Amino acid sequence: MRSRIGKEEAIAAGLAEIAKDESDADGVALATAARIAAGRVLPIGDGRSLGVGGSLLGETIVAATGWAPHVVWASARRTGDLGEAFGLFVARDPRAADRPDLSLREVAELIDALASMGNRLAKRRRLDAAFARATPLVTKYLAKAMLGSLRVGAQGGVMEGAIARAFGASVDDVRRAGALVTDPGTLAVLARDRRLADARFELGRPVAYMLATPLETIASPIDPSLHVVEDKIDGVRAQIHKVGNDVAVFARGLERVTAAFPEIVEALRFVPGSFALDGELVALGDGGKVRPFQALQARLRRIAPAPELVAETPTAFVAYDILHDGERDLLAAPWSERRAALEAFARTRGPAAAFSVNGCAPAPAALDGPAGQATLDDLLDPAFRAARARGHEGLVLKRVDAPYDAGRRGQAWIKVKRAFATLDVVLTAAEEGHGRRAGVLSDYTFGVWRGDEIVNVGKAYSGLTDVELDAMQRRIQRLSEGRFGGVRVVRPEVVLEVAFDGIQRSTRHKSGFALRFPRIVRIRDDKRPEDADRLEAVESLFASQVESGHREEVPADTPLEERPRPAPKAKTKAKRKKADERQLSLFDAGGEPARRRG
Amino acid sequence: MSGRDLSIEVDSGGAYLPALGLHLDPRSPVPRAFVSHAHADHAGGVGSGEVLGSEATLHLIASRAGAAGAKVASPRVLSDDDGHEIRLDGGRTARLTIAPAGHCLGASQLVIDHPGGRFVYTGDYQSGPGLTHAAGAPVPCDELLVESTFALPIFRFADRATTRAALVAWCAARIAEGLLPVVLAYALGKSQEVVCALQASGLGVVAHGAVHRMCAAYEELGVDLGVRDGRLRAYAEENRKGRGDKGKAAIDGVLVVPPNAAGPTGMLKGRANARVAYVSGWALIDASLEQRRADAGFALSDHADHDDLMAMVRATGARRVTTTFGDAEELAAILRDTGIDARALAAPSIDDGAPE
């Protein structure tokens, strides 16, 4: 089902049906269903993680079906989804349709038990026992929910719409409450019980972030007297709550990541009173200067970093909003009032390396120009250049009289970014996507010329429309020179124009460089492969970045990646036991889309 | 020849038997090719010096080649009894016959009796009978080259009659709702099966040009699909006849089109009342429906599923099995796990939504 209304109606009908169950007074079944429909199993902000990944579930499938692991994994590749393969395996047994199945309440108990267990073998036993009772249909969807591959598509307000529809509430009321409670399960139960008005911002529980709208040109004049301009910081969005003596850090997807940033916790632990701040996590360089995003990545991959890593790559929190000052929540207060409170807070806190407040300045008067003529980044050029000089990636315009509109992407905050540059590159390989793109060659690897060979500089989700993808699929199959696993190597004939936000050193690519956030602007059929850019162009762009402080020269043997990726599975028991070595993949969860276009 | 078995090499995108100078379903013209059936990904050898195949397959590839203005140079019809002989080194001969492979009209297994024993190439295979083609059956042999498109155990297809009935019911329900049921089915084989099932249940059918052409070719081979008597209507004509103000005529009945004709820019553009069913073994996979923007999927396959393949391989009694197409490595590994000497042919695989 693709239409938004259709999805809303279907989810609403399901929730309304479940809400008829009078034995569910505490709402456990309803909350579980609502969370699963929203594509998650645990409430947002729950400090725990389910700890059920592909490798563990793969073992359960092997045990449940008796098929060899290579058969199970080949099947997962074919379907593009391990949960779907599991369902098909179970469907082979004609008696499986008569299994007792799990009730929503049992699913809730299962999820809670799994999230509370640390022992892998214990988890395996629990999973094996649960799936032994599941019909093929429930097997498929429960596995998908656990793996986070359900892809219901209930984002962007669909869930709020569905809850409103199911319980006859107004969408605005549901949205308002939803931004505060964030967990779709809690929200559904509040709506069922006609208690949406009871939703409150609670210190210690994150609220949905207020988001900025990207804008290139202005449609109507922006009144400079009503706006300020802030640097857009190249870090990771975070909220920090302090309740009593407890400091908690919440990431972009509102996951709790407190243990990952001990120095920030330390810097805020002794500030008197309670508070909630919104801002950005950054890596800190010499003299308190913010380091490029690239430097932060080492820290984003650790649930609890070793002290050496903290010393080597210290982080800081740059606050730009305050949501609660310990006495009252400030969400409804205008930005100017919140800013004053934030500055007052910073004075109480005093200076610390790991905590600072983002600067802001009055918006330039030139903004008031005629609409649609100049691009925003031209109008803001001096401010833009100043921000770049400070090592930041762009600007955010904020309206001074606007409240903190939790969970909304409105016009009160406008972000302005510039693509760093574009390059003409040659397609060298294509890979099949996952999920909806299973079997579609949608991930492209591309390179530039070094002498008379082509060396890769990046890989991007294609960024093309379905129609373009379809045409490219056939072209790639024609140009195919063989396949290695899911990767198809192609004859270098297709020229692509890619935009990107920066260049970093990489050992992944033969060129020694990787483009940051590359996206395909267009297919350059007007160009021949020999017209594509050369490595020298990449080198000189990289040098210009180092000069301006946007990149750091690092030893080429440091493996760098485009962005934090899902954790590779620990290979040995010894490794798994050591908490410090565990990987943090939480920054991928929830908010950030796979194609970050920021 | 090495030992008693035929040696199988890879050349021109498919298997090659050097002792016979014979390519099996090559992707490009070669001196001598066996074409197992008329699907485009198997009939790349249509322009070969000598093309061997069943009478129906040669007819179908000739009508496809004819539509493209080409012709089959030197067709050689193989049959199931009257062996065609190929001379081997040392004055001995190999005798070539064919056996039904199911799959589609004309699809044949190649049976080679040579001094070292019997070699069988299945081509694309299915044991169940179709409405428009014969059932395939295992051929006892020493050495088997077998397809492996749907070899993974996740592929288990329901009984064909049940799936056909479900498809017909789905189409009838859409018509009752005032909607236009559109069936995506490969132009050769699958769509004839669909047309036949729909007509048998009394539903009117309108066919995309490619489907219509292949139905006509089937009819020349004695399979009645209503082309001659006008029961099967051509889409282009229907659209021309009743074109309204929006440039698209209302279609009365079920529209049958090849999967690639129904993309976002294809013939369904502007038909808001179209509801799409994808009919293929691949329809068992959710992503295949999403990619084709299909509202429903019917896994009516013309290939063997895992169980069918395993049963067939066992029934041949082959000492040595080579697998090809799709999940060849996996089928070989699964066969080895059951104690059968099996390996995958190291050929570029014909897969990724292979027609079927």
Short account of what is shown:
The complex is a heterodimer of chains A (598) and B (356). By secondary structure, chain A is an alpha+beta fold.
Index terms:
heterodimer, A: about 600 residues, DNA ligase i, domain 1, D-amino Acid Aminotransferase, Chain A, domain 1, seven-stranded antiparallel β-sheet, 20 helices, B: about 350 residues, alpha/beta, Metallo-beta-lactamase, Chain A, Rossmann fold, seven-stranded mixed β-sheet, six-stranded mixed β-sheet, globular
Structure description:
The complex is a heterodimer of chains A (598) and B (356). With 598 residues, chain A is of the alpha+beta class. Chain A has 20 helices and 19 strands. Helix content of chain A is 35%, strand content 20%. Chain A starts with a helix and ends in a 21-residue tail after the last helix. Chain B has 8 helices and 19 strands. In chain B, the strands form 3 sheets. Chain B has a 7-stranded mixed sheet, with helices on one face. A 6-stranded mixed sheet of chain B has the order 1-2-3-4-5-6. Chain B is an alpha/beta fold. Chain B has 2 domains: 189 residues, Ribonuclease Z/Hydroxyacylglutathione hydrolase-like (Metallo-beta-lactamase, Chain A, 4-Layer Sandwich); 139 residues, Rossmann fold. The C terminus of chain B is likely disordered. In chain B, strand 13, helix 4 and strand 14 form a beta-alpha-beta unit. Chains A and B meet through helix 4, helix 5, helix 18 and strand 14 of A and helix 6 and helix 8 of B.
